[in-house]
Each structure stands twice: as C-alpha cells, then as structure tokens.
Amino acid sequence: MMAGVARAFGLDVRRITSQGVFSILALLIGFPVAIILIGSISGGVSYMPGAAIGGVSAMLALLPLNTFTFEQQGQNNWMNGIIPVRRVHQVIGRYLVIGACVLVLALEVAVCVGAGMLFESGMIQFSALAISVLTAIVMYALFESVMIPLCYRFTYQKALLTMMLICIGLGAAIAVVFALLAKLAPASIDALISWAVSSIEAISGAGVIWPALCGVVLASVAMAASLAMSLRIYLAKEF
Questions:
Q1: What is the pLDDT of residues 198-208, one digit of tens each?
Q2: What would the DSSP string read from start to end of 101-161?
Q3: How do the domains of the chain map onto residue ranges?
Q4: Dist. CA 117–CA 29, nearest whole Å
Q5: Tens digits of per-residue pLDDT, 15-44?
Q6: What does pTM read for this prediction?
Q7: d(CA 213, CA 89)
Q8: Half-sphere exposure of residue 193: CA atoms within 13 angstroms, side-chain side
Q9: In Å, what is the CA distance from 139 to each residue of 54, 106, 217?
Q10: At what angle do helices 87-121 and 21-42 cross, to 10 degrees?
Q11: CA distance 133 to 126
C-alpha cells in the first residue's frame, strides 16, 4: 500500500511542478521574503500576522487544486483509471500533498510572524506565534477539506463556483438568522454576544492548550470526513 501511495504522491508532485520547479520555489520563497522585507522597513506592524496567514494560505491552497487542472487539461484525467496505482492510493497521495503543504504553511507563517515580532518588539511571543500558526493550519485544512471532494465530483471550475455558492449561502443564512433574532427576540442577540465574549475570555485565560486542542480536533475531523467523501466519490467514478 505504501508503495502505491508513494507513487501517487510523486505523480501529483510532478504535476504541480510541471511548469518548472524554479517557479514553485520562487513562489514559496518569494512571498515570505517580500513580507519580511516590508516588515523590516515598516517596523513590523500588526498587519504581518494577517498578511502571512492570508497570503501564504491562499498561495498554498492552489497547489493541491492544481493537480485537478493538470488532469483535466487535454481531457487526460481518464488515464488515472489505467495507471498501475489503485484509486484509493491516488486519493490518499493527494491528501499527502495537502499534508506537505500544511508543513510548509506552518513554517512560512511562523517565520513571517516571528520576524514581525522581532522587528516590532525585539522578542518573539511564542504563545501568539503558536496561535497564528494554528489559525493558518485550521483555516487551510477546512478550505481544502471542502474543495478536494468538490474537485473530485465536478470540474475544477464548477468546484470553485460551488464553493463560492456555499460561502454565499452560509453568509446569507447567518444574516437571515441574525435579522430574525433581532426582530423577534432582540434580547437573544445580546445574550449571544455576551456568551461569545465570555467564551473568548475563558479560552484566552486558559492559554494556548485548549485552543490548540480544539483546532487540531476540528482540522482532523474535517480532513477525515473529506478523505472518506473523496474516496466514495472517486471509487464510484467512471472514466
């Protein structure tokens, strides 16, 4: 099994780097270097954690998804049905690509946020650094856990459209719920805000341990469910 997964992982890596290894390395190295250079000039202001998490996450989010675009180019994705690697191994190998991207993401966010702290105060606050890294990992895992099954089910373009519609639908549903609560039960809004504030204060008072555990559990459950869904979709697919 491990040999098949390794072959599938290697095939996806070759797909990602098919436009040139140098371009991928320049992308992975260039963005953090740019953030650090800007931070060194500006003194490491508060935008650096957000820029690192948002920018690096968005950049790395595309790499696993690019494997689907390369498969669909020239309609050559049918070859996945005949290559000597089982479909299960192909899916697991693709999720290993996500795992590799998570490691790169954690490293780059840690470097960028840590550099920003050094520029601003001359010292690294490891609890805040850990929270930034964890936030980036959880956001990345949640996004990929939704996008990968969608890409197995639809074409890459339809998957992006579906993801956009899901986000719009969730936003609209939340807005409608809050609007109804504000109209029918105004006191419930205040109670909900008070509960959220007290929960955040309780989590903050507990240190990094509980947020870290909650984040790890959330990301793990999301990825496990995503893997199971992708396997179900891909094993039933006809090429």
A1: 655 555 555 56
A2: HHHHHHHHHHHHHHHHHHHHHSS--HHHHHHHHHHHHHHHHHHHHHHHHHHHHS-HHHHHH
A3: 1-156+222-236
A4: 20
A5: 888 777 777 777 778 777 877 777 777 665
A6: 0.80
A7: 29
A8: 7
A9: 9, 12, 13
A10: 20
A11: 10
